[in-house]
Hints:
Blueprint: E1 4-10, E2 13-21, E3 24-29, E4 47-49, H1 52-58, H2 65-75, H3 86-89, E5 97-100, H4 102-109, E6 114-117, H5 120-131, E7 137-138, E8 143-144, E9 155-159, E10 165-169, E11 176-179, H6 188-201, E12 209-214, E13 217-223, E14 227-230, E15 233-236, E16 239-241, H7 242-246, H8 262-272, H9 275-290, E17 302-304, E18 312-313, E19 332-337, E20 340-342, H10 348-358, H11 362-384, H12 396-410
Antiparallel strand pairs: 1-2, 1-5, 2-3, 3-4, 6-10, 7-8, 9-10, 9-11, 11-13, 12-13, 14-15, 16-17, 17-18, 19-20
Amino acid sequence: MSSILLHALLNGEHIGIIHSEPRKTTLTYDPGATRSLSLSMPTSKRRWKSPWVGNWLAALLPDRESTLQRWRVAFGVKDHAPEALIPYLGEDVAGAAQFVREDRLQSVTSRSGTASPVTDDEIADLLHNAQNDMLPIDAAAAIGQFSLAGAQPKLALQKGIDGKWALPHGAEPSTHILKPAMPGFADQDVAEALVMRAAKYLGLLAAEVTISQFKDTQALVIARYDRVFQDGRWQRVHQEDLCQAMGIPPLLKYESQGGPGVSRCATFLADHCADTDVKHFAQSLIFNYLIKGSDAHARNYSLILPETGTPTLAMLYDLNSTLPYPGLVAANSAMRIGGEFRFEKIGLLHWARFATETGQSEEWVRGQLADMAAKLPDALSTAVHTEDLREPAVRIGPLLTNAVAAWCEDGVPR
């Protein structure tokens, strides 16, 4: 990898320089910089090296190697280090961070970005391209339009106050993420929408979602919680996932792979956030148990990092249930509950240990478990009958609701 220099911005404010060379990447904060890129790299230390910087940048890219390889070919990048792709993809990523080449700096800092209108037919084509690991490219600037982490193909667009869609460029941020269903899981996008809605009905903090049809392609549409309309324009809000915040490589997101478990995550939240955030984290784990959600790993929890004040646990996202897919139902949780991975083996003793791990009372945990188990089937049924989900949920809705109701009735310990 040849030497790379990138300017690090937080919502347009210059905070430092990223410098990458073979086997070494550094972040040097500007003199007087007060905003940190990450809790794992505070400004109290001016210069940070790999692996801290490389791990954080790697978490901005998709997980799928096929996607990364196609992008390397598109930009003529031969090096497999994540830092080698960031110069082409760093202008619209998670949170408020932007990583900008010298030749692009004036354009980005002058807020001269644009948003090109796109039709439903064009969005359908973009979604098909995403499924084939192809991303929209601004050929004139030699950059990709966005980078989104995770294993699923997805698309980032901006939705205006007028409800019209556009493909943002430069300083303009995306505001929504569009995800088609995962291959092999019919109507998975609808199931995710239903589960996310049910979580909100139960009082959990979950991102706003809907299902939209674009020509021949259906997709889950997620409103980005790290974007806000303010002072007449869309602004980025800084965030990072728990692996980034703790300085953990993104590939170690599952506890079974050596990633952080309940106790470590809860302790980290208790050290950096409010007590209510630890409670919300505990509630989300109980909810994921009740839907047999096997993907609630550390990277599916994020923190909002405000300009001033205490970090907060971000809205929940990527809530998926395997229960409506007979033969594909997950056996294990992404994190141990009281020392046990296997859903079917988690009993009251494990929930008592879980209470200790999360710093909650055993009575509160058992109350949350019983209350959510009792209310979840009705919450899903309500979601199935909402106006925007009623038609898409015709097939998957009853399967999901009945499977979750059976698990909550027969599988949950009391």
